[in-house]
Amino acid sequence: MTATEQLSTKAVTFSKKEAFALIKNIDEIYATKGRQVVHLDLRRSQPDEATLVELLIGRTGNLRAPVLRQGRILIVGFDEMTYKQVFK
């Protein structure tokens, strides 16, 4: 896998508004929450803003890291099994 764009969330901050702009053209979100992975299919359901903030924004108020996008899938946080599933 090769990154086409790489940004450091320490150098570049993403506000809630900018984080929501990232999911504008996204169909699925996989986000780690503790040891669990939450999967949202945005084609079938529209989660409320609080749910999206909880999954996308960290304690600092910035976008959680790492964030990877593969086509119309967004992965927030690190989970090896999710990476293997999405990037097969």
Question: Overview of this structure, please?
Answer:
With 88 residues, this protein is of the alpha+beta class. The protein has one domain. The chain has three helices and four strands. The protein has a four-stranded mixed beta sheet with strand order 2-1-4-3, covered by helices on one side. The longest helix has 8 residues, at 49-56.
Largest sheet: 4 strands, mixed
Q: How far is the N terminus from the C terminus?
A: 10 Å
Shape: globular
What would the average pLDDT be, to the nearest integer? 88
- Please give the radius of gyration in angstroms: 12 Å
Class from helix and strand fractions: alpha+beta
* Helix and strand sequence: HEEHEEH
Helical residues, percent: 25-40%
Question: What are the main properties of this structure?
Answer:
4-stranded mixed β-sheet, 88 residues, 4 strands, 25% helix, alpha+beta, 3 helices
Structure in a nutshell:
The protein has helices at residues 16-22, 49-56, 80-86, and strands at residues 28-33, 36-41, 67-70, 73-76. With 88 residues, it is of the alpha+beta class.
Task: Explain the layout of strands and helices.
Layout: H1 16-22, E1 28-33, E2 36-41, H2 49-56, E3 67-70, E4 73-76, H3 80-86
Parallel strand pairs: 1-4
Antiparallel strand pairs: 1-2, 3-4
